[in-house]
Design a protein that fits this description.
There is one protein chain. The chain is of the alpha+beta class. The chain is 31% helix and 26% strand. It is built from 5 helices and 7 strands, in the order βαααβββαβαββ. Strand 6 (139-142) and strand 7 form a beta hairpin. It starts with a strand and ends in a 13-residue tail after the last strand.
Length: 166
């Protein structure tokens, strides 16, 4: 899998990924400006504009020409030290390690950009997300009847040898 930011030629693959995620009821993890985007031809432009404003950091995992995982760090401008991480894996590609790879890269990107921690909000019934967060040593606590909150302290970028991030 190749993980990188969106590019114009990726439009059909990304539109298909989002269509499948929305059909599965995953709109709660997508940014509102993505969910509300009615014109698929403007999707890449919308994501690119958001990336340029430093509000969100979007990454996609591609394999065999398909976008299979979407990850982002949101509200970067508001919470520079602790952005919120969200992930969504295409339903037919789940349970193959794509979420772990994306989470690792987003942790690295957050650390490189100066974040001291990353936070997540997880639906209580999403046992796979809970297990993934625990495997990274997130501190998880209950926030509401329906969601858990997780927080992961990130090591200083100078303290992590040999990591390269695209």
């Amino acid at each position: 899998m190749i993980i990188r930011g969106p590019e114009q030629p990726d439009q059909p693959a990304i539109a298909q990924l989002f269509a499948e995620l929305l059909a599965e009821g995953n709109q709660n993890i997508l940014p509102p400006y993505v969910v509300s985007q009615r014109d698929p031809s403007l999707l890449i432009q919308t994501l690119y504009t958001s990336m340029q404003s430093n509000n969100d950091l979007h990454r996609f995992g591609f394999t065999r020409g398909q976008a299979v995982v979407y990850g982002f760090l949101s509200s970067w401008g508001d919470t520079l030290q602790a952005p919120q991480l969200s992930l969504a894996v295409r339903p037919s590609f789940r349970h193959r390690g794509f979420a772990r790879s994306m989470a690792s890269q987003l942790h690295d990107l957050a650390r490189i950009r100066g974040a001291t921690s990353v936070r997540v909000e997880i639906p209580r019934e999403n046992n796979y997300a809970i297990a993934l967060c625990r495997s990274f040593s997130y501190q998880i606590s209950r926030t509401t009847k329906t969601h858990l909150h997780g927080s992961l302290e990130l090591p200083n970028a100078r303290d992590v040898p040999g990591r390269w991030v695209a």
